[in-house]
Amino acid sequence: MLNFYPWGLSLNRVVPEKVDRTRIEFRSYVWDEAKLGESAGGALHEVEVEDEAIVEAVQRGVRSRFYRRGRYSPTRERGTHHFHRLLSEFLAGERP
């Protein structure tokens, strides 16, 4: 994930390691130190800790006996679904 802020860029990389294990790498690239800590991205470390907790919760949910693999959430994952369809069409040679 690329997160652009007035001060620079935050890169979040979610790396699947095993079926039940995922690692998150956070990298920040500061272009303007004068803007660091201001506006969006001001509390970046706290947001990253929250993101890490969300990924861990999803991992636990996937291991749940109640989890059923299936379609994308129509209310939460329309953008992801659209991107995956475009990628699938491109890889199948259906788009220039």
**Sheet of most strands:** 3 strands, antiparallel
Q: How helical, in percent, are the residues? A: 25-40%
Mean pLDDT: 81
Summed up, the helix count is 2
Number of E-type strands: 3
Characterise the protein shown here.
The chain has a 3-stranded antiparallel β-sheet, covered by helices on one side. β2 and β3 form a beta hairpin. It is built from 2 helices and 3 strands, in the order βββαα. The mean pLDDT is 81. The chain is an alpha+beta fold and 96 residues long. It is extended.
Topology:
Layout lengths: L1 E4 L2 E11 L2 E10 L13 H20 L14 H14 L5
Antiparallel strand pairs: 1-2, 2-3
Task: Identify the notable features of this structure and list them briefly.
alpha+beta
Brief synopsis:
The protein is an alpha+beta fold and 96 residues long. It has helices at 44-63, 78-91; strands spanning 2-5, 8-18, 21-30. The radius of gyration is 17 Å and the shape is extended.
